[in-house]
Amino acid sequence: MVTGAQRQRTRPAWSGLALAALVVVVALFAPQFAGAGPNGNSQSLRTLASTDAVGGQLSGGLQKTAAQTSSYSIMQARLNSGKTIDARWNPCQTAITYRVNLSGLPKAKRAAMLKTVKASFKRLSAATGMTYRYKGTTSFVPRQDNLTKQPAEIVVAAVSKKRTDFPMTARSLGYGGVLWSTWYGSQGEGAAVMRGYVVLEAAAIQKLKTGFGRGLRQSNVILHELGHATGLDHVSSRRQQMYPTLTASSPSGFAKGDLAGLARVGKKAGCIEVPANVSISDLS
Ligand SMILES: [Zn+2]
């Protein structure tokens, strides 16, 4: 099952009526542009996310873009000029920090899950070449309207799906995605992923096997959702971990196509110069 979600948020640092008026005009033609900074740069925030189920069907939602191959698909950020580019993190930030909320799990199961989450980030780092830094636990639960307030760049929360408003179904195992910022102005235009989030359905994920390997495992759900939190979208190939449904024949961890997609949005893609006035700060 595939579900897309888009959010727009207003940048708090407005100054001047002229800029505000400009924003209104821009907003009429391009609803995703919702804020402007004091130097004339405009910024917008978008999220794209996916929900995942065991045994569900792949149904719609995949956008055919230049970044899609048969084995990986990368979420696309649309710039002010209309050009689309890969939605990716700036691999040159010191680290991508993460915090973990395991409050939906029985206390006896939290240590093992934390270990799996940390090991999954290590695998993600090996695939992207980027540095991820664990900053501890949190009580934060990602929701559609609070992503800019995350206490770390990525939050992984294993909680009841009732605690979030991402559209999860009775069969959902998790929900993951990114929040990116786009900008344009005197410094040119660009986009960067600024936040990522993973919600694991606590009751459902406990029923899966622990450890790494093929099939119906907690680790494969976590890696899949971390793929979303890195900018990957679903693919129709069952051989990839980014196939939208976890099955008994799901690959062990990231497969060849997943790794190709993660490499494409990783360190080798080069630094992104994020303007200082982008309102979502680098927390590293
Ligand atoms: Zn998914």
Key traits:
284 residues; alpha/beta; Collagenase (Catalytic Domain); two-stranded antiparallel sheet; 5 helices; 25% strand; globular; disordered N terminus; binds zinc ion
Shape: globular
CATH-assigned homologous superfamily: Collagenase (Catalytic Domain)
Q: Could you say which structural class the secondary elements and strand pairing correspond to? A: alpha/beta
Q: Overall pLDDT, averaged?
A: 81
Q: Tally of extended strands?
A: 12
Could you give the order of the helices and strands? HEEEEEEHEEEEHHEEH
Description:
The chain is of the alpha/beta class and 284 residues long. The chain has a single domain, classed as Collagenase (Catalytic Domain) (3-Layer(aba) Sandwich), CATH 3.40.390. Strands 1, 2, 6, 7, 8, 9, 10 and 12 form an 8-stranded mixed beta sheet that branches. Strands 3-11 form a two-stranded antiparallel sheet. The structure holds zinc ion.
